[in-house]
Amino acid sequence: MEKFIKCIRGKVFRIFLAVVFFPGVSLKAQTYKLGFAPLSEDVNYLLQPAMNKVGSEAHTGMQPYLWKSVAKCGSVDSLLDRPVKDSKFARSLVGRKLYKEHLLQVAQEDYFLYLDPVFEFSGGKDQEYDRTIYANTRGVQVGGFIGERFSFNASFYENQAQFANYLDSNINITRVVPGQGRVKQDGEVYDYAFATGTIQFELNKHFTFQFGNDKNFVGDGYRSLLLSDNAFNYPFFKIVTDVWKIQYTNLFTVMQDLSNDNPSDDEPFLKKYASMHFLDFNIGKHASIGIFEGVVWYADSLGARGFDVSYMNPFIFFRPVEFSIGSPDNVLLGINAKVKLNSKNQLYGQLMLDEFLLDEVRAGNGWWGNKQGVQLGAKSFDVLGVKNLQLQGEINYVRPYTYQHRTTQGNYGHYRAALAHPLGANFTEIIAIARYKIDNFEFRLKASYAEVGYDTSGLNYGQNIYKSYDTRVSEYNNETGQGLNTKITWVQATANYLLNRKTRMSLFADVSLRYTSNSKSDVSTLIVQGGIRTRLFNRYYDF
Fold this sequence. Notes:
The protein is mainly beta. The chain has a single domain (120-533), classed as Beta Barrel (Porin), CATH 2.40.160.130. The protein contains nine helices and 26 strands.
């Protein structure tokens, strides 16, 4: 036994040496040949100029992007590259790990494995409330591919944080950090953890299967009115079919309703299910249009109805099926469209229908059941010939009671958050974003203005998607912004110094100004913070 233990220790030690000091052959683009890119605004900023060129066959309406789809637009390494000044330190082991490589990696022709720490250590202040804010995040991510068809990735984050006052107020109500899970509270400090993990199998060049626990996004905008990564991670099974000019995505998910969340008991949360499909079609060299349909349903009162096999058929429209089985399920329809004016400029938009009666729309009487959303936007790359300067403008409009259902188990939400827009419904929003990269520096200026009609006096005016539409205030004369009409102005300037492209490890500093105004109060909040972090997923605190 002693000899066996020594042998095992010796092998483990040799593997460790090989991983750290002898990373194997250079894989270049092979590192990105399988699986999906991170669902990250920072990564998309680098990929989208090439993916949106006139004539590009890449489908951008469903995120995260397939690496093999990105690779059709050019060398992925070149798109993600960052300049590293050649020096003795940059060529050293520490320099390579800091700037170019994963912390631990094994790279051969037919497999690639990596491990990295993920973290955020930041601090700052909410000036209005003289409140210290900070984030202490530690975690790990692993991933890689084995052979020609199988890839995987997983991550785990443990967090302690203290937030700005407006976020703290929101978390105290929902008991959930936006997009990052439930909390345990110790005074003003929140403790929370979350994990992601997916496996991918590419049957051939046409079919990709993904199973795991993570997020998805439908659209070309900063926001999505169809499906966004605003809510917490959820289990899903996804089939992506790529053939000719068509990309067809089927998504089968398990969501959770926290209406029975009670910190004092261990009762499992209520489950609900969602099945969605998105058909994206490239029209010529300049345009694409996608059709989205999704259905949300839940177990019956006896728990006898689970995942309904009626919704597993990938080639059906859900509304006829829902009608045929006599169900009370919630179906949404949508269109996502994009037009490339040229390789540097594009227009995009979405139309979302939760309910729709043409006669009621024509009547213009503000019928509560006219539940629709509209998005219009534009992007420009290398503006005025300035390389890596990107501008984006977007308008989002969602009518009252959209995404609501009779019960929270049927609404278009998960983990006490909206599956679409962070503001829920009953709002109009305008967003402008400017991004610029030079060498290792990245700068972003984001401004938004929204008018939201919040509920007041215990009445349901249609903003909170977790209220039943049976409690609506009026059958007719409903208009966007009704209720406690609140104006929200948000301006944020961020500067990043990128250290490692593999993990998006960066030094950062940002300044945010949030101003809200309604008939009850006017609040202006200035938030200043900075630190070091890895950033491989999106967080939406701008609401």
